[in-house]
Design brief:
Elements: H1 5-20, H2 43-55, H3 66-84, H4 92-115, H5 121-142, H6 147-155, H7 163-172
Helix pairs in contact: 1-6, 3-4, 3-5, 3-7, 4-7
């Protein structure tokens, strides 16, 4: 049985709530999340993406500090994967999304593990709280008895803020300096290159 149009609209709003904590349109992303560490991106390009990511406001409920943010991001991805794994009618695209999500979650967890010993007890506690909050966002969807509704909710996840990728790299590499600014990256306030 397919969900009604009203149910679909409700699911869309709820899926938006999973990420943002409020009913809203999908957040603009600054590009795809790169999970491969051996990317051939230039330092300048990475710095530009990082500057844009850190200038873009985070969704409501997302921690500002890098380490708790990475825990929050990991839990959101893992919840999405868990929801996808409840689907008996998953297609090839669903399975690919789950596979890529698992790679992304592993990257976040590796960064957290690498940075754990450098965190204060307060920061570790903030990370645990952020993770718990992100996991709780998936509970109502996991509890939906209707597989078609769970499938729609799985398809409506809009992804993560671009800052997740950069925060994970900064935690993993023990980068404690402030993120690159738009100006330092040669960008204007709209993220466009500044003419020399």
């Amino acid at each position: 049985m397919r969900p009604s149009l009203a149910q679909t609209a409700t699911l869309a709003a709820f899926a938006s709530f999973i990420l943002t904590g409020s009913v809203a349109v999908a957040q603009d992303q600054d590009g795809p999340i790169a999970t491969a560490r051996e990317a051939t991106e230039s330092v300048e390009a990475r710095n530009a993406r990082e500057a844009i990511a850190y200038e873009t406001p985070l969704p409501r409920g997302a921690p500002e500090q890098d380490y708790p943010l990475v825990a929050w991001c990991a839990a959101l991805v893992e919840g999405h994967i868990a929801l996808g794994r409840t689907l008996t009618n998953a297609d090839d695209l669903d399975r690919e999304i789950i596979r890529l999500g698992a790679l992304e979650a592993t990257d976040f967890r590796d960064a957290l593990q690498a940075g754990t010993s450098r965190q204060t007890p307060a920061t570790r506690a903030a990370a645990e709280a952020a993770e718990d909050e992100a996991e709780a966002r998936w509970t109502p969807l996991m509890d939906l008895p209707d597989e078609a509704a769970r499938s729609q909710a799985f398809g409506l996840f809009f992804g993560l803020p671009g800052r997740c990728e950069h925060a994970a790299r900064r935690v993993r590499e023990n980068i404690t300096t402030p993120p690159v600014t738009l100006q330092a990256a040669g960008l204007d306030e709209m993220g466009q290159p500044v003419a020399p």
